[in-house]
Amino acid sequence: MTFAFQAIYWREMVKFFRFKSVLLSSLIQPVMWLAFFGVAMSKSFDDMTALLPSIPGVPQVDYLSYMGAGIIAMDVLFSSLFGGTNLLFDKKFSLLKETIASPISRLNIVLGVGLSGVTKSFIQTAIIIVFGGLVGMDFFKGYTPVQTLISVAGIFLLVGIFTLGFLFLSGSIAISVEQPEGMQSILTLLSMPLFFISNALYPIDAFPAVLKFLSMFNPLTLLADGIRYFALGTNFSVMGGHYVYTTMDIVLSFVGLIFFALITLSTVLWRFNKVDI
Q1: Closest by CA position to 115, among listed 217, 267, 7, 230
Q2: Is the pLDDT at 75 greater than 70, yes or no?
């Protein structure tokens, strides 16, 4: 049953499009992040940047474009972290018991849920990129059509790996707890350090040494760096800081996120094998 995960995938996608409140909130949320937070914050930071000396020969990126990469990463983080709650409700209402009792392997169950989450993340990422262009987010500036397509593919690949990692993590938590309130508390506790100890919204240059070290291994930082590499280029300045991304930097982002996804996949499969429905 090589493609058995398709049944789980389509079930999750049907649920996503059938429940209009969930669908609308998923589509509107990235727009709200960018419109209310991004645009409001960018004006203040751009005014401050105007007072700083520019770096000769280095393209300057506005704060909205810099933050746009972080908003994509942040939106994908929250949607994938809380995506595993579907498994908790399936367990609570005995739907998971019926799924596990079917001929579908547990790996296929996990993959079906994970790939449905990746599809949702792709939709949200596309919305941010398109809407961001309408409000002044300057992605892919000076790129040829071919370079733009390659960059978009690179962003989506990073987003997909990142989403799988956090959906697997969220799924392992959902299998381990009994009440939605408990899962909500755990996910909130996880999301805060991931968000604040990252470069999603601001550079980490001024971080204390310990936080800067932790940020280097934060999957959210790896994703934001990768998106900026593809969307803004390899050499730019923002808020007086100079950023240079090399091929090795993007390789490390991919390797780090793949490693994280494999670890969380192993964890969720281990919890599935131990689960007592």
Answers
A1: 7
A2: yes
| Pairwise CA distance, residues 193 & 31, whole Å | 24
Q: Distance (Å, rounded) from C-alpha 214 to C-alpha 217?
A: 6
Nearest to 218 by CA among 169, 162, 154: 162
CB < 8 Å & 24+ apart, contacts of 135-139: 135/34, 135/35, 135/38, 135/39, 135/64, 136/39, 136/42, 136/62, 136/64, 137/34, 137/38, 137/64, 137/65, 137/68, 138/61, 138/62, 138/64, 138/65, 139/65, 139/68, 139/231, 139/232
pLDDT at 93 over 70: no
Q: Two tokens at 245?
A: 């991304």
Alpha helices for 2-84 (secondary structure H): 5-18, 20-32, 39-49, 63-81
Torsion of Cα atoms, 221 then 254 then 33 then 211, to 10°: -10
